[in-house]
Amino acid sequence: ISILKRLKLLNCVVISTPANAGEKGDIHYIRSAPAGKLWLSLINSQCNAINLIAPQMVDDLKRANITRPLITQIPNGIPVQDHPFVAPQNTIPLFVSVGRLSHQKGFDIFLESIHRLKKNSLPFHVAIVGDGPERDNLNQRIIKYELQSYVTLLGELNQDDIRKQLSSADIFVLSSRYEGMANAALEAMEAGKPLILTKCGGLDLYITDTMGWIAEPESVDSLHDCLLAALKTDNNSLRQMGLRNKEFVFDHFEMTHVASRYIELFKTLVKEK
Fold first, then answer.
1. Hey, what's the torsion of the CAs at 112, 113, 119, 124, to 10 degrees?
2. Of 135, 111, 213, 139, nearest to 172 (Cα)?
3. DSSP codes of every residue in the chain
4. Contacts for 248-251 with beta carbons within 8 Å, 24 or more apart?
5. Sheet of 49-51, strand order
6. Which of 3, 75, 105, 273 has a CA that sits 20 to 30 A from residue 121's CA?
7. What is the full per-residue pLDDT of the chain (273 aa) written as tens digits?
């Protein structure tokens, strides 16, 4: 689209929304690609606005010298359901993670952290929802680490069944190597769950120690420490964390609030044009 605008073959408002932040994010990918400087120049000159779903992307743009477009920070939004909080009824703590089984999502790191965690002799179980190219590799790791009684790969589920898994969880885990604003984590917050997230410059920047735990990306030790801390946290404290997250996601990420911000952005850009 930027090329067509540059050639005057297209006359419209263009808004770009990068998906991932940090050193392995979208801006970094463009910078390192063939003719990366040219692509960044086109984005800088032809985009009317760039919306950043993750706070870390502000620094990404500065490093790329993208200064001309209007920069906004409107996060992803999710539907928020008005339903009462129901505490999970698990006999042992249940960690749930949802995501594509890809290298980006760091499930291999998660499994290695679980391998270390079981040495603490604390009971727990892990349910991983999703499918993808890393499934066979993850199955092999489960066998290698003898985690068959600790980890269940549930495969791809429909939205209703994902909702049930989130409802049954005690803690939600996102182990990504890099990320933008993961909807799965937002949905876990909406379901009233404490979070364990990796530090990727997105949702983790909103999370305090009264809402969850933040691990360093690609660090087995750091993720293990967060998992262990969560296991040692009493049920009432976990419940209070989940309630804070539910309230927070309603205040900041509820879909109609987010949509209204986008509509105002569209009105502003059309008026300027």
1. -110
2. 213
3. -HHHHHTTS--S--EE-----STTSHHHHHHHSTTHHHHHHHHHHH-SEEE-SSTTHHHHHHHTT--SSEEE-----B------------SS-EEEEES-SSGGGTHHHHHHHHHHHGGG----EEEEE--STTHHHHHHHHHHTT-TTTEEEEE---HHHHHHHHHH-SEEEE--SS-S--HHHHHHHHTT--EEEE-SSSGGGG--TTTEEEE-TT-HHHHHHHHHHHHTS-HHHHHHHHHHHHHHHHHHHBHHHHHHHHHHHHHHHHHH-
4. 248/189, 248/206, 248/211, 249/78, 249/80, 249/186, 249/189, 249/190, 250/80, 250/190
5. 15-16, 49-51, 70-72
6. 105
7. 888 888 888 888 999 999 888 778 888 889 888 989 999 999 999 999 999 999 889 999 998 999 999 999 999 999 988 776 777 888 899 999 999 999 999 999 999 999 999 999 999 999 999 999 999 999 999 999 999 999 999 999 999 999 999 999 999 999 999 999 999 999 999 999 999 999 999 999 999 999 999 999 999 999 999 999 999 999 999 999 999 999 999 999 999 999 999 999 999 999 887
Residue 243 burial (CB count, 10 A): 14
Phi, psi (5° rounding) for residue 78?
Answer: -135, 155
Written as one letter, the residue type at 228 is L
